[in-house]
Amino acid sequence: FFESVASPTSFHNERSYGDRHRRADRQSCVEGSSFSVVSTPLPLLSQEKICHQFGEEGSPLQPLQDHNSLLGDAEALNKTLQDLGYLFIRGLHDREEVLDARLAVLEHLKQLEKLDPDHTLAEGVLLPRCGVGCVPFMEGRNDLTHSERVRKVLEGPRPFSFFKTLFKEDCRTFDFKWLRAMHTGGFTGAHVDNVYMSRGSSRLLTMWTPMGDITTNMGCLAVCESSNRLHEFDQLHATYTQMDVEKEQLQGTGWFTEDPEEIKARFGGVWRTTDFRAGDVLIFTMKTLHMSTTNTSGLARISCDTRWQPAADPADERYVGDKASQKQDLKFGVYAEEKASETKPTIDRKKKEWGFL
Questions:
Q1: Arithmetic mean of pLDDT, 159-188
Q2: pLDDT tier for residue 60 given thresholds of 50, 70 and 90
Q3: What is the distance between the alpha carbons of residues 289 and 272, in angstroms, rounded to a whole number?
Q4: Does the pLDDT of residue 47 top 90, yes or no?
Q5: Cα–Cα distances in angstroms (integers) from residue 139 to residues 91, 122, 265, in the given order
Q6: DSSP readout, 142-153?
Q7: Which of 15, 66, 74, 213 has the most crowded Cβ, counting Cβ within 10 A?
Q8: 35 vs 293, which has greater pLDDT?
Q9: Please, what is the average pLDDT of the chain?
Q10: Could you give the 3-state DSSP secondary structure of residue 306?
Q11: With the CA atoms of 18, 21, 25 and 30 taken in that order, what torsion angle do they form, in degrees rounded to the nearest 10?
Q12: How far apart are the first and last CA of the chain?
C-alpha cells in the first residue's frame, strides 16, 4: 500500500520544483532551546488532505503531528521519544541552507550525467528509466558529505544545540553520513537501525534530514508508532533487533520485510508519515521500525541519515574517524548486493529460525 498511496496521479503537479516549493510570505516562528525554527505553510498537501487521501478510518498511513511545542523541554522531548519512538520537528535546520545543500548534491548528479538535461538543475529530474544502479553511492565520509554546503546542515549549530538539550549533556555525531538520492521506483523496507550499528552507545539516535521539500510520492520516511516499546513487538526485538547484520554476514538488505502489511498483521502498530519541508527532521530510536514510501515522482529524492549520541558514550568505531572514510566491504539496505548463496544467512532463513515463518 505504500506504493499505492503515493501514486503519481494523486500528487502530480506540473509546476517546477522551484515554483511548487517557493517560500510563503507569511511564516511563524517557534522558539527552540537556542534557535528559532521556521514553520512554512505547506504548498501541496495539508494534514487534512493527507487524511482524506489515505482515508481517515482504517487507512494504511496516518499523518505525523510535529512536536515543535516541546522544543526546549528536555523532559517532554525524551518522554515523547520513548513513548512514540520518534520526534518530528519542523524547521530544525535553516531552510535556505538545506536547499543549498540539495543543489550541491544535484550538481554532483549532473556531473555524473544522472539528471534529465531537458529540465533545470533545481527541478532535480532524473533521467527517464533511472532505476536501480543509476544513482551513485554517496554514503560515508567523502568530499560531498563533508563539503562546506552539506556539512553546514548536517553538523551545524542547530542540530548540535537540539541534541545537547535532548541528552542534557554534550553530544557527538558520526563522521559517516548516509547521504542518498533515491532512484525512480526505489524505497526502503521495514527495519530497525540497531541491526546496522549496535556496537556503541545504547542511547544512539537517528536523524533523517530530507534535502528539500519532499512529498509522499517522492519517497518519504514513515515510522511505525511506538514499535520501540509495545509488548506486541517483544519477539521482534528479542530476535531481529538483536542481530548484527555484519557479524552474521547476512545476505541482502537487512530489512525485516518490504511489506508494511506484514508488520501490521504480525505486530500491529500504526504507520505515520507526511509531506516534509526543507529544514524538517525526523528523529527516532534504534528500535523504531521505519521504512519509506516509493519514489514514483521521477525526481531525485535526496536525504541524509545522521547518527547522534552523548559525547561521553562509546561510539561504534566503524562510523567514526578514519574508518568512516574507508570503503565498506558489505553494503546493506538500498545498496545491498543480492547474491545467491546456499550457506550465508538470509532474512527469510533467520525469520524461520526465529519462528516467524
A1: 97
A2: confident
A3: 11
A4: no
A5: 24, 22, 33
A6: STTTTSHHHHHH
A7: 213
A8: 293
A9: 85
A10: strand
A11: -140
A12: 22
Give me the DSSP letters along 146-197: TSHHHHHHHTSHHHHHHHHHHHTS-EEE-S-BEEEEEPTT----BB-GGGT-
CA 29 from chain centre, in angstroms, equals: 24
Backbone angles phi, psi at 89, to 5 degrees: -115, 120
Q: What is the number of residues in the chain?
A: 357
Mean pLDDT to the nearest integer, 184-204: 96
DSSP letter, residue 113: T
| Closest by Cα among 197, 211, 183 to 246 | 197
Say which amino acid occupies 162: F
Quote the pTM value.
Answer: 0.84
CA dihedral 292, 298, 300, 304 (to 10 degrees): -10
b/e string for 164-176 if b means 16 or more Cβ within 10 A?
A: bbbbeeebbbbbb
For residue 305, give the C-alpha cell.
541519515
